Amino acid sequence: AVPVLKKQLSLFVSLTANLASGILPSSGDVQVQTENLATQLKQDNVVEHISAARGIINFKVNRKLLAQKLLEPFGNGEDDKFGLNSELFNTLTTGTTLVEYSSPNIAKKFHAGHLRSTIIGNFIANLKQSLGNDVIRMNYLGDWGMQFGLLGAGFEQFGSPEKLKQNPLQHLFEVMVFFLFSFALQVYVRVNKEAENNENMKQAARDFFRQLEQHESHAVSLWQQFRDITVKEYQDIYERLGVHFDVYSGESFHQDQAQQVMQQLQSRGLLKTSEKGTGVVDLSPNRDMTNVCTVLRSDGTTLYITRDIAAAINRKEKYSFDEMIYVTDKSQENHFSQLFQILLAMGHSWADGCRHVSFGLVQGMKTRAGEVVFLEDVLDEARARMLNNMSQSNTTKELENPEDTAEKVGISALIIQDFKGPLQSDYKFDWDRMLQAQGDTGVFLQYTHARLCRSEISSIDTFSFWILYPLIYSVLYQSAQDLQPKHLVNFLLKLCHLIASAHRELPVKGSPEAVAQARLRLFSGACSVLANGMRILGITPVNKM
Ligand code: ARG
């Protein structure tokens, strides 16, 4: 039935296209035209009814047949698989997608932008996976650059290598009160200040970074420790967020390759020297140096963009991806546009498959303790606030692990607040609004899911009523086009509102057996669609709250 339906639909599309392109007369009576069009469509057991009225063609799909067809592959323990084996998905092109997201900087503050990148990138990776792509999840750490000169030199002065070795985490906390990167940030800040009036310190920082660039073992081992500790800290926090990475890469990995990139640019005649003595690539349309991108400092060291060029080429060789998606805030739009232009100029036509997903700023992300410095603070605050809200409800007492539930619900509140609008927009961070149980929030989604899990509904095994399935399919397809989570979020919120009225209008208790069974199936199907949709957004559905 599905292929027949597809055929009928494509007939529709070609008819409308013909009309638009003037093959069919566009003047004359609209009613006559639509009737003409309608007669070309065949009424059969798939399309049950066709009618034309005032320029609109209506048709009715045989719902029973569609439901039956869609149900066929399900109900046998495959509910969680979004029908990847369904004929509906054959039309989609799949392949390998590399998604690079989160990518914080060692020894620098983790800001709201990194949180956004983490959850948006996770959503895109989940979405691509649910549509049948092979997905590589990559974290590209900011683990190289002059700040490591300051950090290294500072640590040698103020830090304690023994303590760092014996009990790294404790040492971090000792030195830096509550900051996640503890010593690293403090050392960085202190050195920065001192460096203003202390030439020796500046020199020490430069020396340390030079030693690092020359792979001097002492400098490298200290740097390695900073990096390892940071990654470990982050992994714990990512776990709380339900986010994981297949690869932890970083700028440091491409230090040497960046020098090779310089040679490639040179041999292609793309490398120019600016008046200031820096190495640049001319990106202006008339090649008159009015728009250049600096790829080499005058002292011969490479930059952020140079490492990105090397990283992209290296990833293509290593993973032979079909598409690569970078997720960062919009301040880096120019950076990525330059990156893709340079790759194309170097003859890497696959750069056409690279995409930058950018997002707006978050205003006013604060916790009770004040300005947010680390991601952990935000997660702790979300959990605490949610726990407090939940303590007013009776069901919380029945929970085995209320903290864990509060954490999951709190995180879903953060995610829905972030995903509701277009990613490009800035938004105001608002604890009270995002944690409302009634409004269009993550708490509302969780509450609806938990309610569906409760009582009679759970008694009906995993069988799903997949009539809801084509709906979510079209929403996922739409999200895959522009990589915006808002389509799925709005679909799920709408679904929850419908479920709320269904709870009122379609009681199970007290209904005749057959009716009760049908309703139970409806609720059970809604529950599974909701849960799967939430998981794609990066939310772990809770069964009780
Ligand atoms: N570490 C960078 C930052 O925090 C983000 C990295 C984005 N990815 C990239 N390939 N440049 O700003």
Automatic annotation (TrEMBL):
PROSITE patterns assigned to the protein according to its UniProt record, in alphabetical order: AA_TRNA_LIGASE_I
Any one Gene Ontology BP term: arginyl-tRNA aminoacylation
Single GO MF descriptor: ATP binding
Annotated TM spans: none
Domain of life: Eukaryota
SMART domains: DALR_1
InterPro entries xref list: aa-tRNA-synth_I_CS, Arg-tRNA-ligase, ArgRS_core, DALR_anticod-bd, Rossmann-like_a/b/a_fold, tRNAsynth_Ia_anticodon-bd
Pfam families associated with the record: DALR_1, tRNA-synt_1d
Enzyme Commission no: 6.1.1.19
DALR anticodon binding domain boundaries: 445-545
Range of residues in the leader sequence: 1-22
Any one GO CC term of the record: mitochondrion
Keyword terms, alphabetized: Aminoacyl-tRNA synthetase, ATP-binding, Ligase, Nucleotide-binding, Protein biosynthesis, Signal
Swiss-Prot/TrEMBL catalytic activity: tRNA(Arg) + L-arginine + ATP = L-arginyl-tRNA(Arg) + AMP + diphosphate
EC supergroup of this enzyme: ligase
Family named by the database record: Belongs to the class-I aminoacyl-tRNA synthetase family.
Function comment: Catalyzes the attachment of arginine to tRNA(Arg) in a two-step reaction: arginine is first activated by ATP to form Arg-AMP and then transferred to the acceptor end of tRNA(Arg).
Name assigned to this protein: Probable arginine--tRNA ligase, mitochondrial
The organism of origin for this protein: Neolamprologus brichardi
